[in-house]
Design a protein that fits this description.
Layout lengths: L16 E2 L20 E4 L5 H10 L3 E4 L8 E2 L2 H13 L4 E4 L2 H13 L3 H9 L2 E4 L2 H8 L14 H8 L8 E5 L6 H9 L3 E5 L2 E2 L6 H12 L5 E4 L2 H13 L3 H9 L3 E4 L2 H5 L16 H13 L2
Parallel strand pairs: 2-3, 2-10, 5-6, 5-7, 7-8, 10-11
Antiparallel strand pairs: 1-3, 4-9
Helix pairs in contact: 1-12, 3-4, 3-5
Length: about 300
């Protein structure tokens, strides 16, 4: 049996182009119209409305083309149950959490199988590292103490933190965050650790890939002023679409020059490194900071 999981309600933004008229009256332009006449391409699937409305309050026109599915799909329930039984079967030394949605869904499923208390027990007996505040909050909500979390909210920094540790013989539980973390597991296993990977959900390709194609046409035609990204998989998805449509070279040229590329954090930004595309990243890895960064860059043009 499979189930769908979403972080909050599905967005009702169902058109490629979102207009200012969709805002509620009391949300009109408290920040001024600094982006009047500008068009922003938004690739986020989750929390898209929040980002879009912040840009619209500044007067921007929006092209919304989710680069990933709006509804990540749960893996087979039997597979997750078997993985949970493996996890609770023996003590765990390190428990690595990556997403709040994934942790919450996992523990709720464990409750339904009568394994919830066992999962809390093994997690509480381990050293717990959380990628960010959402995964940490989900664990704390279950009574599990979190020992460390990077300010960057980047899993790469969790691995860097562990790089100074002796992991030989350690039993590590690694919660995947929608995309495979096999590379991380191999790194940890190469240092002598036993790694149990637990996949709660997987992020799928966008439901409407043609919308990415339309956005790429706008990029090539320099009809958008900026593109925003909130995850590395979204970057991979849109660049893959550029390859499939035969626009890779033209897209790269546009993103290296006329179109501002802004990412909410360094992990997403690093995904552009193979194409040597300059990326703007806010000091605080938050949507509000991302919007203000784009605003600042465009005001200088």
């Amino acid at each position: 049996m499979t189930r769908d999981v979403e972080n909050g309600p599905r967005s009702t933004l169902d058109s490629t182009h979102v207009t200012v008229s969709q805002l509620r009256p009391n949300e009109t332009s408290p920040a001024g119209r600094s982006l009047e006449g500008r068009r922003i391409g938004v690739t986020a699937a989750r929390k898209a409305r929040e980002q879009i409305e912040m840009f619209q309050r500044r007067g921007a026109d929006i092209t919304w083309a989710p680069a990933l599915s709006l509804a990540p799909s749960m893996i087979d329930e039997g597979e997750l149950r078997r993985a949970t039984q493996v996890v609770v079967g023996r003590p765990v030394d390190l428990f690595l959490a990556t997403t709040g949605t994934g942790i919450s869904s996992w523990f709720e499923s464990a409750d339904s199988w009568g394994l919830g208390n066992d999962l809390v027990r093994v997690a509480s007996g381990a050293e717990v590292l959380a990628r960010g505040p959402k995964s940490a909050g989900a664990l704390v909500g279950r009574g599990v103490h979190v020992d460390w979390s990077p300010q960057s909210e980047c899993f790469a920094d969790v691995l860097a933190y562990l790089s100074r540790r002796d992991l030989y013989g350690k039993r590590i539980v690694l919660q995947e965050h929608g995309h495979s973390l096999n590379y991380a597991a191999q790194v940890l296993r190469g240092r002598g650790a036993e790694v149990v990977i637990v996949s709660i959900y997987r992020v799928e390709a966008p439901e409407s890939p043609e919308r990415l194609g339309e956005l790429l046409d706008l990029v090539v035609g320099r009809a958008v002023d900026a593109l925003t990204f909130t995850s590395a998989p979204a970057v991979a998805s849109i660049m893959h679409a550029a390859v499939l449509t035969g626009h890779e070279s033209a897209v790269v040229d546009a993103l290296r020059g006329d179109v501002i590329v802004a990412c909410v954090g360094p992990v997403a930004a690093d995904a552009f490194s193979p194409w040597h595309i300059p990326v703007a990243v806010p000091r605080r890895y938050r949507l509000g900071a991302l919007v203000k960064l784009v605003e600042s860059h465009l005001e200088q043009r």
